[in-house]
Amino acid sequence: MKEILQKLDKLSTARPLEIIRKKKEGSKVVEFFGDFVPEQWITAAGAESYLIMKGGDPQPPEATLDYMLRFMNPLAASMAGSYLLGLDAIMPIADSVTIQQHDSHYGRMTEILEYKGLPVYKVGVPADYTVDISREYYRHELREFRAMLENLVGHPISDDDIRANYAKTNRINELLRKIDELRKQDNPPITFSDFIKLNHYTLRLDYDTSIEALEQIYEELKNAPGAHAADAPRILIMGRAVALGDYQVPTIIENAGGSIVCEFLDEAIRPFKNDISTEGDVVDAYASAIYDNRVPQCIFQPAWETRFEHLKELIKEYRIDGVLWYQLAFDEIYDMEHTCLSKWIAETGVPLMKLESSYEYSREAVAPLTTRLESFVESLKEAK
C-alpha cells in the first residue's frame, strides 16, 4: 500500500501542472470549494476541476490580515491567504472560482477574492435545511450553477455524462466504505493518517485513477495485519475538517499509541457514505443525497441533537474509547456545539478532549501540543 500512496501523492502534487498545461491547450478551469458544489458537473462539462482544501500552514491565514479581521477560521482564511501569497497555482488562471456560501467565514474570504478581481461564483446553501423553501432554494442555486458552467464552456452539459460521473463517484464511495469497514476490526490495517490522505487524493485525481488505486488498496488491506499497537485506544475525531496537509495532530496521536478509527468531519473529506442516485433528475439526485438526507453539518440548524445521536451511533459501531474534538480557531459555531456536546457526552461516560488549532505548528507550539495529546492517549489506555 505504501507504494500506491506514494504514487497518488506524486500525482496529486503534479495536478496543478497538469491543469496549467490543459489551460494552455484551451480547457476551462474551475477551482471550487465545498461538497455543495457538484464536482461531477464540472467534469461532465469538460472543464478541469480543482478543490480548495489546503490547510495546516499558519502563513496563509496571517496574509489575510491586511484585508480582514483576524477572527476567521484558518481553513477558510487559507483559501484567500494562499492566493495572496502565490501558493495557489490554480486560482490566478481559473475561469471560475466557485465557493459555497454556507457560513460567514467563507463568505468573508470570498469577499477578499472578489476584491482582488477574481471570477468568483457563489453557490448559496441555506442553513435551515429542514424546510421546503431552503431545499428549493438550494436546487435553484444548483440550476444557476449549471447554467454558469454551460455558458463558461459554450455548450450544454449532458445529463447522461453527469449520471456517469455520479456512478464513478459512487464507486469511489463504495471502495472507501469497504476500507472504512476494516477500521472496525480490533486492530485496523490502516491508520487515520493514511485514510484521510486517501480521501484527499480522490478529491484531487481523476475518477478512474482513484477507483483503480482504491481497488488495489482494498485487496491489500482486507487480509493485512493491524497497523497499530495491540489494544490501542480507539479514538473518534470530530470537527470541521482535517484539511490537506494538516496531519500533525493525527500523527502525534498515532505515534503515542492511539488509533483514530473513525471521523465525524464536515469538510475536506469525500462524503463517502452518501451515494447519489443515477436515476431521475440530476439536480434532485444531487440535492437529495448531499443536502436533504445527509447528516447535517454543524452550521446547519437545527442540527446539534441530530449530530449527537449520530455520534452515539458511531461510538457504538466503532467501539470508541474516547472522542477528540478538533476545532479550528475562531470557529464560534463549533465552539457553541462543543458546549452542548460536552454536557451530553459526559452522561455517556465517553471521555472527550477539546483541541483548538490555528495551524501553528512551530517547535514551541508542538511541544505542549504533543504533551496534551500523549496524556489523552495514556488516560484512555489506563481506562481500557
UniProtKB/TrEMBL annotation:
<keyword id="KW-0408">Iron</keyword>
<dbReference type="Pfam" id="PF06050">
    <property type="entry name" value="HGD-D"/>
</dbReference>
<protein>
    <submittedName>
        <fullName>2-hydroxyacyl-CoA dehydratase</fullName>
    </submittedName>
</protein>
<dbReference type="GO" id="GO:0016836">
    <property type="term" value="F:hydro-lyase activity"/>
</dbReference>
<feature type="coiled-coil region">
    <location>
        <begin position="165"/>
        <end position="224"/>
    </location>
</feature>
<keyword id="KW-0479">Metal-binding</keyword>
<dbReference type="GO" id="GO:0051536">
    <property type="term" value="F:iron-sulfur cluster binding"/>
</dbReference>
<comment type="similarity">
    <text>Belongs to the FldB/FldC dehydratase alpha/beta subunit family.</text>
</comment>
<dbReference type="InterPro" id="IPR010327">
    <property type="entry name" value="FldB/FldC_alpha/beta"/>
</dbReference>
<keyword id="KW-0175">Coiled coil</keyword>
<keyword id="KW-0411">Iron-sulfur</keyword>
